[in-house]
Design goal:
3 helices; mainly alpha
Amino acid sequence: MQEKDMVSDILAGTKASIDSYSKAITECANQQLRSTLQQLRNEAEQFQYQLFQIAEQKGYYVPAPTANANDVQQVKSGLTGGSMQ
């Protein structure tokens, strides 16, 4: 297995873990368990970002071009209840 494939697999697994932690947090009534899950999710997010940076540096991942400020504002307005143009 190539390094690129391994990085992609680990990124996908980490993203799936983050999704699972988030779902479990929203359904958790026990505050101690909820806090533990939040900590684990935060750690997984930090790990995912570090791995993403490595993948980007090695050219394994090319992010989408940066959106212009107007596009960002339109999306933000749409998500916060304002109307999108």
